[in-house]
Amino acid sequence: MESTLPETAAETSAENPWPLHLLSEKLKAHIERAPAAWVEGQVIELNKRGTMCFVTLRDVDAEISLSLTVWGTVMERLSIPLERGSRVVARLKPDFWVKTGRLSMQAWDIRPVGLGDLLARIERLRHALAGEGLFAAARKKALPLLPHRIGLITGRDSDAMKDVLRNASLRWPAVEFEIREVAVQGVSSVSQITRALAELDAIQAVDVIIIARGGGSMEDLLPFSSEELIRAVFASTTPVVSAIGHEADRPLLDEVADLRASTPTDAAKRVVPDVSEELDRIRQAKAQISRAVDLLLRRETERLAQLRSRPVLAQPGGMVTVRAEDVHRLRNRAMVAVEAAVNRDIDRIGHFRAQIRSLSPQKTLDRGYAVVQLADGSIVREAAIVEPGTELSIRVAKGEIPAQAVARPVPELPPGRTSNSNQRRK
Questions:
Q1: CA 87 to CA 245: how far, in whole Å?
Q2: Rounded Cα–Cα distance for residues 57 and 181 (Å)
Q3: Closest to 43 (Cα-Cα) out of 6, 68, 75, 8
Q4: At 66, which helix (H) or strand (E)?
Q5: 244/154 Cα distance (integer angstroms)
Q6: Where are the domains of the chain?
Q7: 34-113 — its CATH code?
Q8: DSSP H or E stretch at residue 22
Q9: β-sheet bridge partners, residue 180
């Protein structure tokens, strides 16, 4: 007879269900196909019953726990006996008990996590995050010179919180704090610190955030090397100061923080300035400014005195007086030169006048000569042109004599000869 049962769970229905044993068998077959997995956790419960040991593991970063069944042969292989609080890695495989329908986790191997393993794991994480640039100095934010309000993430009523508050208030009494008290170790510490960081980063008035915790063992400080916390600090827009443990402690939080303080007390001193030191600096600055101003005034006063002592400022009219004297002297020289030139030209004009007068016809007339002119005013230069009866005018030195030619003129004698009358006279 062929089976009419559905092949898969999705094909079952109220009219055609699976028998309970079939579901249990299929669950067992499916669970047995799941591969074994290595997990890490902290032992919180340990109960031995004969050769069996029942262990409860809790996640190191979350409130999740899981019960394990460890066979005696596995427990015998441990070099160090398991104790509550131990951190272990275990190779687990799920097992389903068909008759009762119970799921249990079988531990095929379990190993304590030593300090060396933790350090090696942190070192691998350090290199991986550094390769992503989370620790680069270029991305670190500068702290404010004088923060008005400081965000503080620390343990509940811890000495670290008291140290930060006391030292910060002593250095700057006006400083204000926004405090978040969280678990600083244990499985819930990472989630609480990350949540508190996000809350403080969202507050606009918070200028800087300090994450502080006192000293502790390597295991106690493991939350501050959590990848989740490191990435949360890297994403924060507010500067973060790490003040974890003592000087020798170096969790990964110190690498990603914008400032690493060796202790909570050192964080308070690094974040908040000392009011007395600032007042001293103000006094020194005021004194320097006063000296600089005094020096400037003295120097400028000396320069003014030097400028005022110069002749041009001591006797402003001196320049005008000198120029006026130059103008007067040059004017006198010009007058003398003009007078000399005028006198010289007057003498030349007199000389030229005398020359002109000596050469003028009037001078010839004054010596007894006369000028004979025709009626039209033309001068008679040749006797041959004068006909008898021609009206003439004879100009002498003073006045004119009218005349008329009465006879033909005597011809001109050759040079060296004289007329008969002259000869007879001789």
A1: 21
A2: 27
A3: 68
A4: strand 65-70
A5: 10
A6: 34-113, 118-273, 365-413
A7: 2.40.50.140
A8: helix 20-32
A9: 153
Q: Beta strands 65-70 and 208-213: pairing type?
A: unpaired
Determine the 3-state secondary structure of 285 from DSSP.
helix
Q: What is the pLDDT of residue 3?
A: 60
**What are the tokens at 387?**
């006909």
3 state DSSP class of 184: coil
Domain 118-273: top CATH class: alpha beta
Give the tokens for residue 185.
């170790």
pLDDT in tens, 35-87: 999 988 888 888 888 888 888 888 877 778 888 888 888 888 887 777 777 78
Q: Show Cβ contacts of residue 390 under 8 Å, excluding neighbours closer than 6 positions.
A: 374, 375, 404, 405
Cβ atoms within 10 Å of 8's Cβ, excluding its own: 8
CA distance 225 to 127: 13
Indicate the DSSP class of residue 8: S
CA distance 176 to 150: 6
Q: pLDDT digits over 337-392, tens only?
A: 999 999 999 999 999 888 887 777 777 777 778 888 888 888 888 888 888 888 88
pLDDT at 245 over 80: no
Q: Are 259 and 241 in contact (CB under 8 A)?
A: yes
Which of 21, 273, 278, 92 lies closest to 172, judged by CA? Answer: 273
What's the rounded Cα separation, in Å, for the pair 246 and 243? 8
DSSP class of 385? G
Instruction: Give 419's Cβ-side CA count (13 Å radius).
Output: 6
For residues 266 and 40, what is the distance between their CA atoms, to the nearest angstrom?
35
pLDDT, one tens digit per residue, over 162-179 is: 999 999 999 999 999 999
Q: What does the angle CA 352 – CA 356 – CA 358 come to, to the nearest 5 degrees?
A: 115
Q: Does the pLDDT value for residue 419 go beyond 70? A: no
pLDDT attached to residue 412: 62
Q: Give the pairing of strands 102-112 and 149-155.
A: unpaired
Q: Round to whole Å and give the CA distance between 149 and 69.
A: 52
